[in-house]
Amino acid sequence: MYLKLLILLFCALIGKTVGSFRCYACSFNSMDTDQSCLTITNTTHHVECPYTYCTILRQELNDPPGVVASFVRGCEDDPAYLNHEVSDWTYRTYYRACTNSLCNVGDGIQSVVGGNLSPTPQFEGANLLVPGTGGAASLHGLTNNLILLFICNFVLRCSIIE
Asked: Is the pTM of this model over 0.70?
């Protein structure tokens, strides 16, 4: 009986850690005096991310060029873009995403690497990735949990038979 409880507890603990990773999480806007979010240090805040992507969104003014209007590091399930730049008359916005723990580092201008998003060597073409509907990405954690549940169920049934 105790063995079954230990196995069940072990499976529950492993199920909680599958698909969970950490992302840096902070923000900056042009009105802030604290610019610590723009560079990663030992004190940069990070969070446990229950979603698929660590992200960076960097928005710069076109005039004067290169001035950061806003900057956000975070954790998202379905980002607008994975690694893309969008420009209009006022802003140039950089969208960056990655899928490894604490991979949302850098200045937001360069594509972040981590996970299966960026090929090696870095692709320099016009289209790196095209965002999809998100159906496959959201099923990733569910698939891992179902496999884990199946294994735990099998182990528990085997221990009952013995």
From this structure: no
